[in-house]
Amino acid sequence: MKQTPAPGRMGERSSSWTARARGEVAQRLPIENLLPDRQPYYVGSWVYVFGVVTIAALVLTVLSGVILALAGPDWWHISAAGRFFNSLHFWSVQVFFVFMVLHLWGQYFMASWRGGRAATWMIGVVIFAISIAAAFTGYLSQQNFASQWIAVSAKDALNAAGLGAFFNVLNFGQMYGIHVVLLPAAIIVLVALHILWVRMKGVVRPIESSRPATRSTPEKV
Amino acid sequence: MMQRKRTTPEDSASTIRTVPYDLLREVAIAMVACLVLVVVLAAALSSPDVPSVTIQSWAQADPVDFTTTAANELAGSTTSAGYGAPYNSTDAGQTLGPIAPSKWAGVRQPVDGANDFVINPLKHASVGDSELTAALSGFQAASDAQKTAWLTAYAKALGDAKVQDGKVVVASGDYGAVPVLMDRLLTVARSGGLDGLLLSSGHFYQTDFTKPLLFMADGSYLAGLAAAQHLSGSQWGMMNETGQYPGQSWLWLYTVWYQIPPFNTAPNGDLLVIILMGVLTLGLLLVPFIPGLRDIPRLVPIYRLIWRRYYREEARP
Amino acid sequence: MDTPAGYLHWGFILISIPNLLLIGLMIVLFVLALVIPLPGEKETP
Q: Does residue A209 surpass a pLDDT of 70?
């Protein structure tokens, strides 16, 4: 028997936070929408796979990163296996950015922010910006010539912005910690929210060219 | 094929025809495809790893540039010496009208090139070296005017310097204690000791490479290696990678400004680019709310290709 | 892979061949995704 959201014993609204939270979730994202086995028939283009491939590349980036972190920042310079895992990490990052940008192009030209989906779009842009920062701190963590040059070059822009005083790109320890712990956590949380929002709102309807958009709030499309 | 009417989550008034779809299988296929792609790329092409430059390798490869840089540190004429915040207050830093973020942030990573890169390492190295000890006291006891005179003459002489057995030889002149200091610093650098002295700065554990990197960046050797690999700022370097590897193409819009006026020559070029990119990023974030920008998809018929099946079916009577 | 890459210099644009190939590949992938039908779909007139 399906659980109905949170009525109290006398039919009134429950005072239990847990029951109320469960009710909200059940209302906003029923499990059939979180894990659907059907989708609108207009979701029929290869453009729709760019997002899931981006996620696959992110998973590989994180997994290869976990191995690199376990073995320490020096490992990939002195071991062939280490170099291979670094290469997995390097190429999964390249694949991640390629497909994230393709996904951005696709979603832009589909105007996927329509129908109350502005938040989904905005979360995506924030993920893009934070991914750039994650890649940047990753390049700084390589401990080779490239990281030396990137550090001394990038410091000028960050210093001009006033951020260099707090984020010292010449400080390997600081950049490594941010790269390995803080930014991956931020990306993973934001990607999870992004996916939840897509599942909550559903896939955006095709553009009806007879109806010009005047607002991004829910419109009848 | 069975057609089941299903409401879309936010729009319960209308219904749309749905088709079967296996989300988890799609995720699994994407994961496998991506894994195969990445493994093949990694096995076939590996990844770039040009070894780092050390103070030692710099001093050995280009002793004249090393010595010139060290002398300029003493003279306070290097880039880092005149940088401003966060390293020192010799310059106001980059500003745009009243906007002065680096100054607001303050001097939070104090660096004193003359002492940090030259005098203090030499003091450590002077243990048991009476000639160096004497040269150090001689230099430090001299007046500022005298130091400037020695350093100016020495810098000029370095223009015609020769390298003999790894050492820098200049024409004779009145340079005071400077040649001894420079010669000893070069020796410490060539031995590898200066890398350690600049990094450890009295601590055992250290992960902050500010001092050795700023010192290197004050010279021309590191920048020369970078330019040879098209990594300089004016070569779209931000986008590039060493060797034949793809770089960071996603930084194209960030680096393009550095290639064109006014950004490429403006003394506050970095600040201008940061502000401009901040505005553009905000613009990308707020696309759903910006008229014009949010209407372009409607005007460009790419969507008609993506949803051609839908438009074909809807057009049927 | 460690020898320096070739570069294309066109006006003020200076791009490495690897980067150019990658961007070209992205455009090709996007266009292909737009035009190639999904497997199992029949293009009815």
A: no
Classify residue A69: in a domain, yes or no: yes
In a domain, B256, yes or no: no
Test the A interface: residue of B2, B22, B45, B47 with most A CBs within 10 Å = B47
A105 and A118 belong to one structural domain: no
DSSP structure class, residue B305 = H
Question: Are A121 and A197 part of one and the same domain?
Answer: yes
Is there a contact between B9 and A202 if contact means CB atoms under 8 Å apart? yes
Chain B residues near residue A146 by CB distance under 8 angstroms: 48, 50, 231, 241-242
DSSP B92: -
A1 found inside a domain:
no
Pick the more confident residue, A4 or A136.
A136
Contacts 24+ apart (CB under 8 A), B224-228: B225/A145, B225/A149, B225/B53, B226/A149, B226/A153, B228/C4
Indicate whether A101 belongs to any domain. Answer: yes
Instruction: Note whether residue A176 is domain-resident.
Output: yes
Residues A189 and A138 both lie in one domain: yes
What is the C-alpha to C-alpha distance for residues B239 and B252, in angstroms, rounded to an integer? 6
A104, A155: one domain:
no
| Number of compact structural domains in chain A | 2
A69: domain range? 45-110
- Chain A residue at shortest CA distance from C31: A47
Do residue C1 and residue B229 have CB atoms under 8 angstroms apart? no
Q: How many CA atoms lie within 13 A of B46 on its CB side?
A: 15
**Cα distances (angstroms) measured from residue A199 to each of A25, A194, B44, B141:** 12, 9, 38, 74
Q: How many domains does chain B divide into?
A: 1
Nearest CA in chain A to C40: A44
Q: Residue B277: what are its φ and ψ, rounded to 5°?
A: -65, -30
What residues of B are in contact with residue C2 (Cβ under 8 Å)?
48, 50, 242-244
Indicate the range of A15-24, A67-76, A208-217, B180-189 predicted with least confidence: A208-217
CA–CA dist B239, C43 (Å, integer): 41
Range of the domain at B95: 55-226
Chain B stretch 96-115, residues whose beta carbon is closer than 8 A to a beta carbon of chain A: 101-102, 104-109
- ipTM of the complex model: 0.92
Contact C16 B242 (CB under 8 A): no
B26 within some domain? no
Does B248 reside within a domain?
no
Q: Which 3 state secondary structure label does DSSP give A40? A: strand
Q: What is the pLDDT along chain B (317 residues), one digit of tens a residue?
A: 444 444 444 443 357 889 999 999 999 999 999 999 999 999 999 999 999 999 999 999 999 999 999 999 999 999 999 999 999 999 999 999 999 999 999 999 999 999 999 999 999 999 999 999 999 999 999 999 999 999 999 999 999 999 999 899 999 999 999 999 999 999 999 999 999 999 887 788 999 999 999 999 999 999 999 999 999 999 999 999 999 999 999 999 999 999 999 999 999 999 999 999 999 999 999 999 999 999 999 999 999 999 999 999 887 76
Q: Is residue B158 part of a domain?
A: yes
Beta bridge pairs of residue C15: C8
Query: Which among B230, B244, B259 is the nearest to C1, CB-wise?
Result: B244
